[in-house]
Amino acid sequence: AQSVTQLDSQVPVFEEAPVELRCNYSSSVSVYLFWYVQYPNQGLQLLLKYLSGSTLVKGINGFEAEFNKSQTSFHLRKPSVHISDTAEYFCAVSFTHIIQGAQKLVFGQGTRLTINP
Amino acid sequence: EADIYQTPRYLVIGTGKKITLECSQTMGHDKMYWYQQDPGMELHLIHYSYGVNSTEKGDLSSESTVSRIRTEHFPLTLESARPSHTSQYLCASSDAPGASTDTQYFGPGTRLTVL
Question: B100 pLDDT exceeds 80?
């Protein structure tokens, strides 16, 4: 069965500092990995996704993530954060429902990133 | 930019009431999803649809029901709301036929409180 673990429930960081949000997954099949961001009072928005190819994936707003198959990790990084990056970040693994072909996303518990001035 | 809408954004109701949470998308996506999200917790899939007149239950058991009569509309109904239904409900749709590789686009959510 697929599962996702986000190791930190909250991460406080000072503005312009680097940040890493950790994500580990468990899956018995090939995976596709996603990071979504949820700003206050809004729905989730895709930051980036890993499907295949280069293990370093670049997303929107200066974020990037690295897929590490041996460590079953997909950590999210940004070299210099801004106040506007304050949000909840969700890691997710995707697999296809066998019968109907619909995507099923399994989400981690989320990491609340707080940027302090 | 994705166009997916949910109404109402906030709803406070009494126990035993029937409610319908609306979700509409203008992108022509075939696949639509409902998630339940409790504070500080992950999202759990409660319903999904891969086209008109097709609905399936998700991984998390839910007393709610859904319908998909039109491509753009995927309402969720609770026949008799209870305090245990208090949660945030997120609707999403996805665009590509690749299934596992799809990007899901989310609405802003409905925060439901049942007294």
Answer: no
